[in-house]
Amino acid sequence: MLSLTEENYLKAIYHLSEGGTKSVLTNELAEAMSTKAASVTDMIKKLSLKDVISYEKYYGVNVTATGKTEALSVIRKHRLWETFLVQKLGFTWDEVHEVAEQLEHIRSIHLIDKLDEFLGFPKVDPHGDPIPDGKGKIKAQPQVSLDQLKEGYQGTITAVKDSDSNLLKYLDKIGAKPGKKIKVTGKEEYDESMEIQIDEKKVFISKDVSKNILVTQ
Amino acid sequence: MLSLTEENYLKAIYHLSEGGTKSVLTNELAEAMSTKAASVTDMIKKLSLKDVISYEKYYGVNVTATGKTEALSVIRKHRLWETFLVQKLGFTWDEVHEVAEQLEHIRSIHLIDKLDEFLGFPKVDPHGDPIPDGKGKIKAQPQVSLDQLKEGYQGTITAVKDSDSNLLKYLDKIGAKPGKKIKVTGKEEYDESMEIQIDEKKVFISKDVSKNILVTQ
DNA sequence: ATTATTTTTTAGGTTAGTCTAAATTTAATA
DNA sequence: TATTAAATTTAGACTAACCTAAAAAATAAT
User: Fold this and answer.
1) Which residue's alpha carbon is at the shortest distance from the C1' of C17?
2) How many Å apart are CA A49 and CA A55, to the nearest integer?
3) Looking at the C1' of nucleotide C8, which residue has the nearest alpha carbon?
4) Average of per-residue pLDDT across A176-201
5) CA triplet B33, B131, B62: central angle to 5 degrees?
6) Whether B99 and A91 lie within 8 Å, measured CB to CB
7) DSSP-derived 3-state class of residue B11
């Protein structure tokens, strides 16, 4: 069984590996965990002994099948709790993350299944990210980042990549919530900024912002 | 700020001291925490440095005013979560304790206040124990243990002292839930067992059981 | 009141997770 | 290709929370 800290490392590795598709380097993991490379080396040795990652010295780590299941279980809990906080307790979109980081480590399958039921078996969390089911399966949603959309095209916001609180507040202000339709009404090729339309309102956003918004078409 | 372990020690001390009214000895605390006396000595030194308990070598510990506030804050969280688990997620009475032991350590005042509101500001938890308010005040309920009731007298169950799962299951089976009225229909003085009536049903219980049931008259 | 027993504390050691500083390996550059 | 730079690992040390075994203090018993 994984400790709280091990769970956090594994989750970070899973995310950095983009769902287990690429390997993760020591330094990027250290950065993500706000810790030092030496500490990361210690930890990945432990995780590798527990067979949730595979590790080749100097060449980074990869998530194993077991590790992927474990990571998705933590992610499932995180996203169900976020949904609970927003839907039932009236948290705003940008307040949930920190608390969900703690709640995701509560150990009880019974609890999480009951919570799932209480929430009506939601498919996505308040950020629009898909919630894995009890067996670790995710309903795949083909999605692209907004900056890839051409002028005139539209999509529905499904998620926001970055969980930076300032970005979330900004998006909230311009009405860019998951579920909302976005239309690209103009595009400047030289800096890749764009004008978008949400509801009836038109807003100008830079590529820094648009690349963090995910949409389905 | 207290660590998770420190919070657990403090809570145990608070309970063993019966709300801060008597001092707690090293060995009883070791017993309660399922640990060794030496470990307890280490910990009470730490807690005493943090001013949540006062400690005199060889003569046990006492909860300070600060410590009482801290302990009540943890107890508030525990009891609100237990209420949530039973009322909203449909946990049975005897399933809640273990999970609430984990949930009580989640750090967020915002969360616990919102939860309180969501539950409709309950005054007691599913075991009938009073829930402290945000300032650590408890609405005092004068209560006695059932074994002190004389034949012919009756009371309303408010709480169960022991949280032993087998006891809780047994009480559930005979219908002895908080809120239920109990009448003492017979009493054997030599072993202090008694016959009680819950609803229309009569049951025989030993002193071991009756001393764990708290009632208000 | 001296001895025996129980309780508590001290001393020294372990593991998890972290750190700094030094050593090693890989990658980049001249 | 030899050298420099960057990334990674090792070595050794720290704190929190635990342990066992031995020492010390308080309590009980003769």
Assistant:
1) A39
2) 9
3) B58
4) 85
5) 45
6) no
7) helix
Is residue B12 within 8 A of residue B29, CB to CB? The reply is yes
Query: Which pLDDT score is estimated for A151?
Result: 78
Q: How far apart are CA A127 and CA A132, in angstroms?
A: 14
Chain C positions within 7 A of any protein Cβ atom are: 7-12, 16-22, 25-26
Q: What is the pLDDT of residues B51-69, one digit of tens each?
A: 999 999 999 999 999 999 9
Tokens of B38: 């030496």
d(CA A156, CA B132): 45
Cβ of residue B121 closer than 8 Å to a chain A Cβ: no
Q: Which residues contact B65 (CB under 8 A, 6 or more apart)?
A: none
**Range picked from A153-167, A184-198, B19-33 for highest mean pLDDT:** B19-33
Q: What is the pLDDT of residues B85-96, one digit of tens each?
A: 999 999 987 789
Cβ A16 vs Cβ A29: under 8 Å = yes
Using the CA of A46, which nucleotide's C1' is the nearest one? Answer: C16
Cβ atoms of B130 and B139 within 8 Å: the answer is yes
Q: A94, A102, A113, A119: best mutation site toward chain B, by most B Cβ within 10 Å?
A: A102
A91 contact partners, CB below 8 Å, separation of at least 6? A85, A99, B110, B114
Beta carbons within 8 Å of A49's beta carbon, 6+ residues apart: none
Amino acid at B202: K
DSSP states of B128-172: SPBPP-TTS-------EEGGGPPTT-EEEEEEES---HHHHHHHH
Q: Cβ within 7 Å of strand C: which of A 55-74? A: 57-58
Chain A touched by B137 (CB under 8 Å): no
Is A114's CB within 8 Å of B91's CB? yes
**CA-CA distances (angstroms) from residue A81 to A76, A106, A163, B165, B217?**
9, 11, 16, 27, 41
Chain A residues whose beta carbon lies within 8 Å of the beta carbon of residue B5: none
Residues whose CB is less than 8 angstroms from the CB of residue B71 and which lie 6 or more positions away in sequence, other chains included: B10, B11, B13, B14, B52, B63
Look-up: residue for tokens 């510990």?
Answer: B61
